[in-house]
From TrEMBL:
<comment type="pathway">
    <text>Polyol metabolism; glycerol degradation.</text>
</comment>
<dbReference type="InterPro" id="IPR004007">
    <property type="entry name" value="DhaL_dom"/>
</dbReference>
<keyword id="KW-0808">Transferase</keyword>
<feature type="domain" description="DhaL">
    <location>
        <begin position="6"/>
        <end position="206"/>
    </location>
</feature>
<dbReference type="GO" id="GO:0004371">
    <property type="term" value="F:glycerone kinase activity"/>
</dbReference>
<protein>
    <recommendedName>
        <fullName>phosphoenolpyruvate--glycerone phosphotransferase</fullName>
        <ecNumber>2.7.1.121</ecNumber>
    </recommendedName>
</protein>
<comment type="subunit">
    <text>Homodimer. The dihydroxyacetone kinase complex is composed of a homodimer of DhaM, a homodimer of DhaK and the subunit DhaL.</text>
</comment>
<dbReference type="GO" id="GO:0047324">
    <property type="term" value="F:phosphoenolpyruvate-glycerone phosphotransferase activity"/>
</dbReference>
<dbReference type="Pfam" id="PF02734">
    <property type="entry name" value="Dak2"/>
</dbReference>
<dbReference type="GO" id="GO:0019563">
    <property type="term" value="P:glycerol catabolic process"/>
</dbReference>
<dbReference type="InterPro" id="IPR036117">
    <property type="entry name" value="DhaL_dom_sf"/>
</dbReference>
<keyword id="KW-0319">Glycerol metabolism</keyword>
<dbReference type="InterPro" id="IPR012737">
    <property type="entry name" value="DhaK_L_YcgS"/>
</dbReference>
<keyword id="KW-0418">Kinase</keyword>
<comment type="function">
    <text>ADP-binding subunit of the dihydroxyacetone kinase, which is responsible for the phosphoenolpyruvate (PEP)-dependent phosphorylation of dihydroxyacetone. DhaL-ADP is converted to DhaL-ATP via a phosphoryl group transfer from DhaM and transmits it to dihydroxyacetone binds to DhaK.</text>
</comment>
<dbReference type="InterPro" id="IPR050861">
    <property type="entry name" value="Dihydroxyacetone_Kinase"/>
</dbReference>
<dbReference type="GO" id="GO:0005829">
    <property type="term" value="C:cytosol"/>
</dbReference>
Length: 215
């Protein structure tokens, strides 16, 4: 199963739409342990990126992810701008010279995206951050790929691990960021960054599979 980088621009559009559609939900999740502006900031960045990309009718998937990265780094404050900016730059850099996106290329994209985020944060699994979703998701993808799984199998395993990681954040005390001020009082609430990470991975996976199955 595979799809072309050019057709993959639909994956970029799906991610942008998913983040913007969940604006209010992300802010509600964030309000429980943070400032309540995560959805506002994320939606702002992805909306601007969508507007920029509307002026680039020939953009492929890699160019689309790079545009998102540029906007998030340059126009979104706080920690999420640089973190997600690095994530999307990783996706772009790992795919820019790949005309066709299959299981191996997608795995390289996810690993590069994760590695770029890891350089910027000390967060580890268990700290109630987006790493609690991203780390097990990428590991599950790579394990499925090592076992010979195709794109559908690898993305399916990835999403299952991501969902479990998101659910696990509900039982964690916040150790980093503003939520750390609440300590154990954050238990019972899922993390906003982990939530947006899951939404992004879900949109990426579902759009990729749609293309792979129809292409």
């Amino acid at each position: 199963m595979e799809f072309t980088n050019r057709a993959g621009f639909a994956v970029v559009s799906a991610v942008i739409e998913a983040v913007c559609a969940n604006r209010d939900y992300l802010s509600r999740v964030d309000a429980a342990v943070g400032d309540g502006d995560h959805g506002i900031n994320m939606s702002k960045g992805f909306t601007i990126a969508g507007e920029e990309l509307s002026k680039q009718p020939d953009a492929d998937m890699s160019a689309g992810f790079l545009a998102i990265s540029t906007v998030l780094v340059g126009k979104i404050g706080g920690s999420m701008g640089p973190l997600y900016g690095s994530f999307f730059r990783g996706l772009a850099m790992a795919s820019k010279n790949e005309p066709v996106i299959g299981a191996a290329v997608m795995g390289n994209m996810l690993r590069k995206a994760y590695d770029r985020i890891a350089v910027l944060t000390d967060a580890a699994v268990g700290d109630k951050t987006l790493i609690d979703v991203l780390d097990p998701a990428v590991q599950a993808y790579e394990e499925a790929a090592a076992g010979g799984g195709d794109l559908e199998a690898c993305l399916g395993r990835m999403l299952e691990a991501a969902r479990n990681g998101l659910e696990a954040t509900k039982e964690m005390a916040a150790k980093l960021g503003r939520g750390s001020r609440l300590g154990d009082r954050a238990i019972g609430h899922q993390d906003a960054g982990a939530t947006s990470c899951y939404i992004i991975l879900e949109a990426l996976a579902e759009a990729s599979l749609r293309l792979a199955k129809t292409g």
